């Protein structure tokens, strides 16, 4: 790794989206031939920073240099011309085109790639060089996730990238696939390319990167530290800030006290459940779970392993192909969402703005949405005054900052929007709470508040199924832990299981 | 019987060509992800422009050329609205449709019902006397041959060139296309303009080639049929061409049946293409997840700066 | 290469003032363009105010005609509103209107029901016929997820062919050379109010508008419509009866369009003709859009558009300006209103490509 002038620098970058400030004076530099890890929690600003580097967004202020010269990037093709390529978490491949066609599409500035044969050959040559196997002639939509990722990396390299940005490349891979990918990343760096590795898997940082930059809430908190000088604990504390102790993987007092309480009956019993993805592929295979009153069952796993489909199936908006779902002793499989709610089911989905709230309606409307369905504000005519009165009381009770009953839902921050959803869902009729990544996109304070509400809910006798990709969250809250992988439940652990045990189950499958 | 079929097939292009040109234009536009409801308007404008200029200048070629330009210009207005100003595509399309119909009606008012010498068929001696297909293949005007050529050219463009690859990518996944360096807005504007030009040509065919006159409401809903034909053809230009000939053949059959005195409920029979299209839609929807070549991003405006 | 670039961002927060200002600006620009088009088409500037405003709204004869024209426009405006509030593209309003007219005429031709009840039965039949006509695309949408846009459009054409089939065939008035049905009996006609051609259908239109306003703004169904229209997935996941609400409102949309047809044949034409309802799909959508999907605002919008149609026929008689000008003006107004929304929804900013001080440091 060279210690000379950096290959690439980004200095004092600012970026706001409308009223939200996302990046504030962020700096970053990259040397030739290094793997530089870029770390940070969800929403820390990593993706925005990289999108500025590749020209998807433009910075409000700040400057970029490449090999000491000012770098002007106005659109994605500018960055490609300078040899900067990004492999997004959501691959930027057109599904109906083949990998060859996807390369051909991007070949505007590469005269030697402008024929189908040349593009195909370049793709295959690149694949050979980094040690991938690749089918260049199959529509991308029909490839597996790992194959798509390889296709994307080969495409970006074939376009001449010497700086490669990888956005959480292992998040969607199995253990074996991830190891081979990380090996390939090392090989690419050894051949003189520079890699920016966005991740939040600390082990990958320590094992595979040369240097690390850490971002928190839109700012750089550590820039270009030498990885060999760092421990996982040190990195974690930098990432999480002052509250790092709360994420330490130890059981909190709450879980120990709740585990002493007597357990009630099964409020949720899933047996041999099968369901399909939108594209018809199996999403859930023979899933069986039980959640009793007064406990939180944590369902851990890497995202995209059937969690989304499980939550939708339980909610009643996706039909199961086989199996049974009992809510509070009643067979609910054929029930629409409304009848399941009558049995006491409440849902906090991962994508709250898309599937639980309506951002263009008022906060009062969102708070009273399910009560209106129950007929609380009238069967034919709505008593809107009462609706607003109760919304106002609820806003005060739950301390939802910046909320007025008449205000638009979409203007609330993620944390306050989640408070609205929790205020609505955790009501007197709740028996079973289904929470999917309830703290995704929230800051630490808001996350702690959400965790507190979940604990209170089960303390009052409800059952909670917590589906989360965040192992620390699972460990902090769960009385029992199940692991889902490739649509199957791969094991059950007690609530005080170690991260290593859970990790083995999450990654052990394939 | 042989003569009946010969004449029936021979008169089919007159009905098929406007549908073919317009629907192929719309195929191109929709493959770029833009739902274009303006076809009826572009066609009216094209028909009027071609007729008025042929009447005043006496030269159908200039008339047709200007009709193409007029259609393209109006489509560019639509393109500006949806691509640059990000207007809702269906509403903006309906609005441009109205503008086209309106201009055609207002400007063309003093040229209504004046017949003129339009485009003449190319008579290929001897060949046009062939049984059955002689009239169909060898007694047509140049636009008929051009239409078939355009169909194959469009197919080649979309399936076998980088330009076509870009258009398809924009219609499927504009964000990925953008990252790949494709100028999404430019591609969409080009496709929209081309669709307007083809619709203008379709209109010109109606007034200058098949009827040699301009009357109010000459297009009479053919723009909407073309729109349905795009779905019928599953967004493929050659299937659109074939579909247009199928629809044209049904339409052409009715006056032939009347001419030889067979009583036929013509209005009911004219419903067949519409009902057939609905059936095709239903079959396509029921036949599973593969929805033919329907562009995945059809009708959705693309804004790069949107936060995901 | 320029040192500046334009960027575009969707505004996350739009003030009421900005919404109102852009809307009014769009309307003024659109109507201004409309006036320019009229002048260009040969309408004399000196009498334009008189022709466009005074004659159609402030003279007894003109106002009567304007209100008569407004009755079906109010109905189709409400029909478009009912569907568009749920993001259902009913672009077959004309078809439902024609079916409604056919339904009413069917009752009249066959003398269904007693003479006293004939007229209500005709109107109910027209609403039913419209609802049945839209039930097909609704069913295809709900059961097979077929795009309603194309199906409503196609069925419109089918409806017109059916209308022609009847008027040139079984229903043709033998004593008339035009393709029209026989004239309705007196008890099959809506009462004239003695004010031009204005008929009692206007009361029905007013009452239905009020009912629609109450339904949309005060009822539980109205709340459901809001949620479904803004976020269908949320509506499904929270147990809102999406299918039932959709079915109710879309059938209502078809019924209102059908009733518009019924009101035209019973109130004005007194027979079935093939010239009714042309362009009403577009007009209905324009009215609903200009009224910003507010039922009460449909009334003034529809009356204003009726005034333009009315002025259009005056201009045609006196200056030979064709009817198409009214379609043109509607198109221009809709297009400008759509375009100004850009300034409501997006923030455009001009950015420098490079901060100049950085460039100096390097060189």
Could you characterize the architecture of this molecule?
The complex is a heterotrimer of chains A (510), B (308) and C (363). Chain A is of the alpha/beta class and 510 residues long. Chain A has 2 domains: 8-248, P-loop containing nucleotide triphosphate hydrolases (Rossmann fold, 3-Layer(aba) Sandwich), CATH 3.40.50.300; 256-508, P-loop containing nucleotide triphosphate hydrolases (Rossmann fold, 3-Layer(aba) Sandwich). Chain A is 35% helix and 25% strand. Residues 242-260 of chain A have low confidence and may be disordered. Chain B has one domain: ABC transporter involved in vitamin B12 uptake, BtuC. The radius of gyration of chain B is 20 Å and the shape is globular. Chain B has a two-stranded antiparallel ribbon with strand order 1-2. With 308 residues, chain B is mainly α. Chain B has helices spanning 2-31, 39-57, 60-84, 89-107, 134-138, 142-160, 162-172, 174-179, 184-211, 222-232, 237-259, 266-270, 272-286; strands at 122-123, 139-140. With 363 residues, chain C is mainly alpha-helical. Chain C folds into 2 domains: 1-41 and 322-351, no CATH class; 53-313, ABC transporter involved in vitamin B12 uptake, BtuC (Orthogonal Bundle). Chain C contains 14 helices and 4 strands. In chain C, the strands form 2 sheets. Chain C has a two-stranded antiparallel sheet. In chain C, a hairpin with a 2-residue loop joins strand 2 and strand 3 (198-199). The interface between A and C is large, with 50 and 34 residues.
Biggest sheet, spatial arrangement of strands of chain A: 6-7-8-3-9-10
* Strand-residue proportion of chain A: 25-35%
According to DSSP, the number of beta strands of chain B is: 2
Summarize the biggest pleated sheet of chain A.
6 strands, mixed
The dominant shape of chain A is globular
CATH class value of chain B: Mainly Alpha
Helical residue percent band of chain A: 25-40%
The CATH architecture designation of the largest domain in chain A is 3-Layer(aba) Sandwich
Count the beta strands of chain A. 20
| Count of alpha and pi helical runs of chain A | 18
What does the overall shape of chain B look like? globular
Give the uncertain stretches of chain B in residue-range form.
none
End-to-end Cα distance of chain A, whole Å, is: 35 Å
* Largest sheet report of chain B: 2 strands, antiparallel
Given helix and strand content, the structural type of chain A is: alpha/beta
The share of residues in extended strands of chain B comes to under 5%
Q: What structural class do helix, strand and pairing data of chain B support? A: mainly alpha
Helix and strand run of chain B: HHHHEHEHHHHHHHH
């Amino acid at each position: 790794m060279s210690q000379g002038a950096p290959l690439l620098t980004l200095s004092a970058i600012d970026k706001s989206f409308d009223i939200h400030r996302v990046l504030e004076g962020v700096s970053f530099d990259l040397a030739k031939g290094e793997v530089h890890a870029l770390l940070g929690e969800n929403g820390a600003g990593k993706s925005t920073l990289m999108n500025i580097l590749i020209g998807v967004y433009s910075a409000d202020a700040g400057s970029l240099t490449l090999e000491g010269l000012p770098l002007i990037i106005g659109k994605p093709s500018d960055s490609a011309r300078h040899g900067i390529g990004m492999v997004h978490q959501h691959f930027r491949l057109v599904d109906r085109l083949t990998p060859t066609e996807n390369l051909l599409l991007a070949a505007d500035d590469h005269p030697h790639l402008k024929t189908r044969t040349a593009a195909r050959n370049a793709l295959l040559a690149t694949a050979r060089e980094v040690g991938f196997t690749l089918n260049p002639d199959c529509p991308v939509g029909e490839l597996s996730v790992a194959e798509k990722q390889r296709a994307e990396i080969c495409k970006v390299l074939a376009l001449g990238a010497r700086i490669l940005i990888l956005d959480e490349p292992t998040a969607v891979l199995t253990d074996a696939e991830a190891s081979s990918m990380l090996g390939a990343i090392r090989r690419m760096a050894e051949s003189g390319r520079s890699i920016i590795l966005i991740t939040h898997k600390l082990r990958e940082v320590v094992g595979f990167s040369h240097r690390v930059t850490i971002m928190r809430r839109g700012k750089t908190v550590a820039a270009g530290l030498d990885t060999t000088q760092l421990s996982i604990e040190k990195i974690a504390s930098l990432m999480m800030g002052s509250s790092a102790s709360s994420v330490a993987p130890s059981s909190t007092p709450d879980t120990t006290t709740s585990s002493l309480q007597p357990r009630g009956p099964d409020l949720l019993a899933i047996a041999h459940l099968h369901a399909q993805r939108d594209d018809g592929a199996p999403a859930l295979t023979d899933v069986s779970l039980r959640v009793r009153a007064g406990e939180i069952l944590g369902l851990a796993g890497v995202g995209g392993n059937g969690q989304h489909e499980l939550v939708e199936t339980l909610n009643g908006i996706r039909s199961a192909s086989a199996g049974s779902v009992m809510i509070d002793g009643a067979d609910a499989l054929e029930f629409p969402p409304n009848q399941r709610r009558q049995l006491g089911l409440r849902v906090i989905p991962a994508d709250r703005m898309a599937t639980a709230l309506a951002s263009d309606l008022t906060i009062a409307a969102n708070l009273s949405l399910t009560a209106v369905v129950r007929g609380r504000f009238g069967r034919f005519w709505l008593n809107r005054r009462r609706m607003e009165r109760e919304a106002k009381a609820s806003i005060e009770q739950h301390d939802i900052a910046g909320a007025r009953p008449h205000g638009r839902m979409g203007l609330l921050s993620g944390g306050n929007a989640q408070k609205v959803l929790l205020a609505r869902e955790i009501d007197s009729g709740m028996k079973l709470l289904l929470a999917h990544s309830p703290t995704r996109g929230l800051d630490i304070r808001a996350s702690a508040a959400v965790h507190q509400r979940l604990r209170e809910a089960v303390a009052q006798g409800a059952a909670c199924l917590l589906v989360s990709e965040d192992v620390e969250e699972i460990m902090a809250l769960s009385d029992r832990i199940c692991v889902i992988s490739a649509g199957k439940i791969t094991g059950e652990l007690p609530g005080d299981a170690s991260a290593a045990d859970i990790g083995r189950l999450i990654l052990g499958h394939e | 019987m042989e003569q009946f079929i010969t004449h029936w097939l021979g008169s089919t292009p007159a009905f098929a060509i406007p549908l073919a040109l317009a629907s192929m234009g719309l195929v191109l536009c929709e493959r770029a992800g833009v739902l274009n409801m303006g076809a009826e308007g572009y066609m009216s404008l094209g028909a009027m422009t071609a007729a008025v200029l042929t009447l005043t200048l006496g030269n159908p070629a200039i008339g047709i050329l200007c009709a193409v330009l007029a259609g393209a210009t109006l489509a560019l207005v639509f393109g500006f609205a949806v691509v640059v100003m990000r207007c809702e595509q269906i509403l903006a399309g309906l609005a441009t449709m109205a503008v086209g119909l309106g201009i055609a009606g207002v400007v063309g008012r003093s040229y209504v019902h004046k017949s003129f010498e339009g485009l003449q068929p190319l008579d290929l001696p001897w060949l046009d006397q062939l049984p059955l297909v002689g009239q169909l293949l060898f007694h047509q005007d140049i636009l008929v041959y051009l239409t078939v050529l355009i169909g194959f050219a469009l197919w080649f463009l979309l399936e076998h060139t980088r330009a076509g690859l870009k258009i398809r990518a924009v219609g499927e996944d504009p964000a990925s296309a953008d990252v790949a360096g494709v100028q999404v807005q430019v591609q969409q504007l080009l496709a929209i303009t081309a669709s307007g030009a083809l619709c203008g040509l379709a209109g010109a065919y109606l007034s200058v080639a098949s009827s040699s006159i301009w009357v109010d409401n000459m297009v009479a809903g053919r723009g909407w049929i073309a729109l349905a034909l795009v779905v019928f053809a599953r967004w493929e230009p050659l299937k659109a061409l074939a579909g247009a000939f199928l629809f044209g053949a049904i339409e052409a059959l009715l006056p032939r049946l009347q001419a030889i005195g067979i009583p036929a409920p013509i209005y009911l029979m004219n419903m067949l293409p519409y009902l057939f299209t609905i059936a095709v839609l239903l079959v396509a929807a029921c036949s599973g997840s593969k929805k033919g070549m329907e562009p995945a991003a059809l009708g959705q405006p693309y804004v790069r700066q949107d936060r995901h | 290469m320029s040192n500046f670039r334009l960027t575009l961002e969707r505004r996350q927060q739009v003030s009421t003032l900005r919404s109102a200002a852009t809307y009014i600006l769009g309307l003024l620009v659109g109507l201004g363009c409309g006036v320019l088009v009229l002048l260009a088409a040969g309408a004399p500037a000196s009498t334009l105010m008189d022709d466009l405003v005074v004659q159609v709204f402030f003279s007894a004869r003109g106002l009567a005609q304007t209100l008569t024209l407004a009755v079906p426009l109010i109905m189709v405006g409400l029909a478009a509103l009912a569907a568009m509030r749920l993001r259902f593209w009913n672009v077959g309003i004309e078809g439902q209107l024609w079916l409604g007219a056919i339904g009413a005429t069917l009752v009249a031709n066959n003398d269904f029901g007693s003479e006293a009840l004939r007229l209500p039965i005709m109107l109910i039949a027209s609403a039913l016929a419209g609802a049945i006509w839209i039930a097909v695309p609704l069913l295809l949408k709900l059961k097979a997820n077929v795009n309603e846009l194309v199906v409503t459009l196609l069925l419109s054409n089918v409806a017109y062919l059916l209308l022609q089939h009847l008027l040139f065939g079984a229903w043709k008035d033998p004593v008339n050379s035009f393709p029209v049905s026989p004239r309705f009996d007196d008890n099959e006609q809506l009462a004239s109010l003695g004010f031009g051609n204005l008929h009692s259908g206007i009361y029905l239109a007013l009452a239905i508008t009020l009912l629609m306003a109450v339904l949309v703004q005060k009822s539980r169904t109205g709340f459901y419509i809001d949620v479904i229209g803004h976020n269908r997935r949320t509506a499904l996941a929270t147990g809102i009866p999406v299918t039932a609400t959709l079915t109710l409102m879309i059938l209502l949309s078809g019924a209102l369009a059908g009733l518009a047809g019924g009101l035209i044949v019973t109130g004005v034409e007194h027979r079935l003709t093939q010239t009714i309802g042309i362009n009403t799909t577009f007009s209905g959508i324009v009215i609903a859009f200009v009224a910003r999907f507010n039922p009460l605002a449909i009334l003034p919008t529809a009356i204003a558009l009726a005034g333009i149609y009315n002025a259009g026929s005056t201009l045609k008689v006196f200056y030979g300006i064709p009817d198409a000008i009214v379609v043109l003006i509607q198109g221009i107004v809709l297009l400008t209103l759509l375009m100004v929304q850009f300034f409501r929804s997006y923030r455009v900013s001009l950015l420098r490509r490079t901060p100049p001080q950085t460039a100096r440091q390097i060189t």
